[in-house]
Each structure stands twice: as structure tokens, then as C-alpha cells.
Amino acid sequence: MKTIEIDDTESVLTTLVDDALNGNRCVITRHGEHAAVILSYNEYRRLEQAVPSLGWLLTTAPLEEDDLPVRKPARCRLLEL
Q1: Which range of residues forms the domain containing residue 44?
Q2: N or C: which end of the chain has fewer CB within 10 A?
Q3: A single Pfam family, by name (predicted)?
């Protein structure tokens, strides 16, 4: 994977996009720290769809009634008004 400083990206942006379309990602750094990644839109969509939402995981989990521990009742403080 190619790495390039953010200050140097303006002059080679077209090349970076062409590389991404050919499957070659590029890491953009700022002050020596990783800041962003250039990748093709198709790869981005593939990665985005690869991670299921928590809601989907909970609703489709093959859990039986006794798989999860029983919740303890919440402790409530009595307030004087």
C-alpha cells in the first residue's frame, strides 16, 4: 500500500484515484500520522456492507431463552422531595 503526505497529494490526485480504481489503496498521512485512505468506491461499498449493524446482529442471533443471564433489577435511590 502506497503512503503519501497530504501536502503532496494535490499534484498526484488523479494518479491516486486511478490506482484506487485498479485495487491499489493509498494511505494519506498528516504530520507523519495516518489520516485517511484512498480506495475505490466499489471497495468502500463492499467494506461498508461487510459489517452488520448491531440491531441486525441482535435480531438475527440464534439465541435460546436461557442463553443470556437474567438481568438484576436496577438499583434505585430513594429521593426525598
Answers
A1: 2-53
A2: C
A3: PhdYeFM_antitox
